[in-house]
UniProtKB/TrEMBL annotation:
The record marks D218 as: Important for catalytic activity. PANTHER family: EXODEOXYRIBONUCLEASE III. This is Exodeoxyribonuclease III. One of its GO terms (molecular function) is double-stranded DNA 3'-5' DNA exonuclease activity. The record marks H248 as: Interaction with DNA substrate. Belongs to the DNA repair enzymes AP/ExoA family. Mg(2+) binds at N7, E34, D147, N149, D247, H248. One of its GO terms (biological process) is DNA repair. It comes from Ramlibacter montanisoli. It is an enzyme of class 3 (hydrolase). Its EC number is 3.1.11.2. The keyword Transferase does not apply.
Length: 272
């Protein structure tokens, strides 16, 4: 099974890019972020015509998430991150696809910092950590993937000097990331590519794409049951080179699900 995450930066504007990518790479599951579209504006018909069944939660402006499944239908688990019923930003979607629990997330950017947006980022991250604690040791295979808006270490950015004040590199953001990993999650890309820089985002300024001046902020985390199934991971960088592309490229993992240990059968209740 191939599972990918892609911040499309506007699903309607970049629908041709999305459809070309789906046709060429054919991920079994695609998690999308930053739809920038209301529910009724999501291009469900075009995506179904491409062979994918979508589950989505739209929102105007910068938010919106979706899970696409090839040849099967995602079974919705939840449409929001627990912990704050008053939070109406569309940033989390969770579904079951062919026996795998898939969490698609778009963590807040947090800029400018310090300020309310950074406070919201950290509060959202804390809610994610709390929810992830219940998933990491689940008997079901679980993957949490998306745009985390955090650069884990200086190795994950071309040059940290000019980004030191950015919310993506703040010690508080990185501490949240490390506490999340410490639960027992496997950072798939870094696990398989420990000695080489891997980027998933190149902003539109100062020829960053042309100079490969990138950042790694799109991540795929595997829980303890799914981690043994990890076979390969990478980034479809060719998508970023398309004309008028998103500033992100899709990141992905390949999983051999037969390597994941089977869930232990539940013991029948004893009759008195």
């Amino acid at each position: 099974m191939r599972i990918a995450t892609f911040n499309v930066n506007g699903v309607k504007t970049r629908l041709p890019h999305l459809l070309r990518w789906l046709e060429r790479e054919q991920p079994d599951v695609a998690c999308l972020q930053e739809l920038k579209a209301l529910d009724e504006g999501f291009p469900a018909a075009e995506i179904r015509a491409a062979g994918y069944e979508p589950l989505w939660k739209g929102q105007r402006s910068w938010n919106g998430v979706a899970i696409l499944a090839r040849g099967s239908k995602p079974v919705e688990v939840r449409r929001a991150l627990p912990g704050d019923e008053g939070d109406d930003q569309s940033r989390y979607l969770e579904a079951a696809v062919d026996g795998v629990i898939v969490g698609c997330l778009y963590l807040p950017n947090g800029n400018p910092q310090p300020g309310p947006k950074f406070d919201y980022k950290l509060a959202w991250f804390e809610r994610l950590i709390a929810h992830a604690q219940a998933l990491v040791a689940s008997e079901h295979p679980v993957i949490l993937c998306g745009d985390y808006n955090v650069v884990p270490t200086d190795f994950d950015i071309y040059n940290p000097r000019s980004w030191r004040k950015d919310a993506l590199l703040q010690p508080e953001s990185r501490d949240c990331w490390q506490r999340l990993l410490a639960q027992g999650w496997t950072d798939a890309i870094r696990h398989l590519h420990s000695e080489e820089p891997v980027y998933t985002f190149w902003d539109y300024f100062r020829q960053h794409w042309q100079r490969n001046a990138g950042l790694r902020i799109d991540h795929l985390l595997l829980n303890q049951r799914l981690a043994p199934a990890l076979r390969a991971a990478g980034v479809d960088t060719w998508v970023r080179g398309e004309e008028k592309a998103s500033d992100h490229a899709p990141a992905w993992v390949e999983l051999a699900l037969d390597r994941a240990p089977a869930a232990k059968p539940k013991r029948a209740a004893r009759r008195s």
